[in-house]
Amino acid sequence: MLGIRGVARGMSVLVGAAALTIAEVVVPGPASAVAVPGFDHIVVVMFENIGYDTIIGTASAPYFNQLADTGALFTDSHALTHPSQPNYIALFSGATQGVVDDSCPYDVTGVDNLGTRLAAAGHSFAGYAESMPTPGCRLPA
């Protein structure tokens, strides 16, 4: 059975990928603003409960350091609350949607979120998660 941490990790990757992809569908700012470059793919890797110094700059994580060297690091990112689940919901939808703990499932369907905005703009997104019980798993079943 999938634990809450696995669900949270899965949600974090999905949310993060969608969050950065939305940059392509945001209305541009004033003409003097620097344009956001277009991307074919955006990948977000999020670690939960792992310190920055445990990964970045260490010999034990060469692939993640290679990604960090060629991408952007969100070094001042902070949670809204504790525990994890409300933060993942907020990252994907802009608010905690009343989620206050790590219990599953919560019904947050029907609320505006990055996925609905990307789909409405003709974009797609995907999430790749650690510890999912089966390929294509959609919790709750």
Automatic annotation (TrEMBL):
InterPro entries reported for this sequence: Alkaline_phosphatase_core_sf, Phosphoesterase
Key word Hydrolase present: yes
A single MF term (Gene Ontology): phosphoric ester hydrolase activity
Entry protein name: Phospholipase C
SUPFAM superfamilies given in the database record: Alkaline phosphatase-like
Domain of life: Bacteria
Family annotation (PANTHER family): NON-SPECIFIC PHOSPHOLIPASE C1 (PTHR31956:SF1), NON-SPECIFIC PHOSPHOLIPASE C4-RELATED (PTHR31956)
Transmembrane segments: none
Keywords (A to Z) from UniProt: Hydrolase, Secreted, Virulence
Keyword Hydrolase: yes
